[in-house]
Amino acid sequence: YFTLKDGSPDNVRALTSACHKYLKGHDGELYFAAGPVVEELSRPVNQKDFHVCLCVAFRDKAAHDVYQTHPRHLEFIAENKENWATVRVFDSWGQ
Predict the structure, then answer these.
(1) DSSP code of 53?
(2) pLDDT tens digits for 76-95?
(3) What digits encode the pLDDT tens for the residues 49-78?
(4) Please, are residues 2 and 52 in contact by the beta-carbon 8 Å criterion?
């Protein structure tokens, strides 16, 4: 979950596009999604303190570990990190 320093629509679109460009299609990826917070969903349980959500599921820990050091992942970080106010990562095991 990315919170941007400037959450303008253009910056949200740019980060979402960068996620698709650099982070989609890695070996061992089972699922990929990236997009902006959905403003019209406003239940008490909805978290709204971010601009872009990235969700990636991997086949196994080995695929995850390769992704972490893959040049495209590192390029994504290098090109975008200056725009991030905060990044929160929620790793979990699925069944």
Answers:
(1) E
(2) 999 999 999 999 999 998 77
(3) 999 999 999 999 999 999 999 999 999 999
(4) yes
Q: How far, in Å, are 7, 36, 37, 46, 90 from residue 40 at the CA level?
A: 17, 12, 9, 10, 24
| Count of residues in the chain | 95
Whole-angstrom distance, CA of residue 23 vs CA of residue 43: 30
Q: Are 34 and 16 in contact (CB under 8 A)?
A: yes
Angle (CA) 7 8 13, round 5°: 95
Residue type, 75: E
- Say if CB 12 and CB 84 are below 8 A apart: no
Cα separation, 2 vs 51, whole angstroms: 6
Token pair listed for 89: 């990562």
- The tokens describing 11, both together, are 């910056």
